[in-house]
Design brief:
Elements lengths: L6 H15 L2 H4 L4 H167 L33 H8 L1 H8 L1 H9 L9 H13 L7 H20 L7 H13 L1 H14 L11 H5 L15 H7 L3
Helix pairs in contact: 1-3, 3-7, 5-6, 5-10, 6-7, 6-10, 8-9, 9-10
């Protein structure tokens, strides 16, 4: 067995150290003759021990190297087997990939061919459908033209018949409306004659004089509904001329108000004939004459406002008067009549009589009611 290069040195060093330690003094020997054999024995034993130890180490190292070599051999064999297996799998996958690519190419070619066939078939269907639609549209157009021709003929005939019927109906309706207007006109004229003959006498003087304010009309539109026992309207309602003619024959009452000497708007018979004529033609004129009458009555109401010192000439008052005559003409007629008959206008120098202007009130022998008598009011007012 070969020794390692450093093994002899170690043995020599160990021998020298042992020899130094095993001196005669250390061993308690009396002579060197006893020391030499013992040293030889110790060195031999030490060499034997070191040799045994070295052999054990060498054997252990050899076993370890052999085990490592065996494990490396096993690992290399496993790697070789794995590499072979991987190469086989790679080859298999490559072959399968080639097969898949071939199938995909075949499928793509098949899809393209089928798509071309479907497109061609669809184009054929579209052409056939377009031709069918053209035929249907031409047939429908021809049918429509025929129907329109028939409808035109029938409609022209129907229009002629309808036109004749409408003209006849309009003429009949116009005749009826004119006849009704004529009857209405005659009745109002009779009522006006009776009013002038039997009802045109002075109105009684009110015991309870109304509170006159120049901010508006003295009597309200709903004065007929005033149930106060001390209200001046109670005395007016007892006379019955103003409420009855205002509600039942408003043209006569309105003409009487317009012909009053206090405002002197127009003569009585002119007002009666004009208002009755406009009312009689309301239906025949499609309410145009009614609008004319409404604006004329609103202007008359503005005249009363101006003469009596009330607000007038503004959009507010004119709109108020138009709305009053549009929705409550009877109440407006009654209100204006009561204002003219029982309230005097604003006093002006030219409206005073000679007695009022020359003789003081303290020297007048007869004291008249407030506002004067009916005859005096009619003789002393000029507009």
């Amino acid at each position: 067995m070969k020794m390692a290069p450093g093994g002899s040195g170690l043995l020599v060093f160990a021998f020298l150290a042992t020899a130094k330690a095993l001196t005669p003094r250390a061993l308690n020997l009396n002579s060197e003759a006893e020391f030499v054999p013992q040293v030889g024995q110790s060195a031999a034993a030490l060499y034997q021990t070191s040799q045994t130890t070295r052999d054990g180490h060498v054997e252990a190292l050899a076993r370890r190297e052999q085990a490592a070599l065996q494990s490396q051999q096993v690992a290399l064999e496993a790697l070789a087997q794995q590499a072979a297996k991987d190469s086989d799998e790679t080859a298999t996958l490559r072959s399968e990939l080639k097969n898949v690519e071939a199938k995909e190419a075949a499928l793509e070619e098949l899809v393209q061919r089928q798509s071309k066939e479907l497109l061609a078939e669809k184009a054929g269907h579209l052409r056939a459908q377009a031709q069918l639609q053209d035929q249907q549209s031409s047939l429908h157009r021809a049918k429509l033209q025929a129907d329109l021709a028939g409808v035109a003929k029938s409609s022209s005939a129907l229009l002629g018949i309808a036109g004749k019927s409408a003209v006849e109906f309009s003429l009949d309706a116009l005749k009826d409306q004119l006849l009704g207007g004529a009857v209405y006109f005659c009745l109002v004229m009779i009522a006006a004659y009776l009013y002038v003959t039997y009802c045109h006498y002075p109105y009684p003087v009110l015991k309870n004089r109304p509170a006159v304010t120049r901010e508006g009309f003295t009597f309200s539109l709903w004065e007929i509904c005033n149930f106060d026992a001390d209200a001046p309207s109670k005395e007016i309602m007892r006379d019955m001329r103003i409420p009855c003619f205002s509600c039942l024959c408003s043209p006569v009452r309105w003409a009487d108000t317009a012909s009053s000497a206090k405002i002197n708007c127009m003569p009585f018979w002119t007002g009666v004939i004009l208002v009755t004529f406009l009312n009689a033609l309301t239906a025949a004129s499609f309410y145009i004459t009614a609008l004319i009458y409404m604006f004329m009555a609103a202007n008359h109401r503005q005249l009363i406002r101006r003469i009596y010192g009330m607000p007038h000439g503004t959009w507010r008052t004119y709109t108020e008067d138009c709305c009053t005559w549009m929705w409550c003409s009877c109440c407006a007629t009654m209100q204006e009549a009561m204002e003219i008959q029982y309230v005097d206008p604003v006093n002006k120098p030219w409206q005073q009589s000679m007695v009022d202007s020359v003789v003081p009130a303290a020297f007048q022998t007869e004291k008249e009611p407030e506002g004067g008598s009916v005859e005096r009011r009619q003789n002393t007012t000029c507009c």
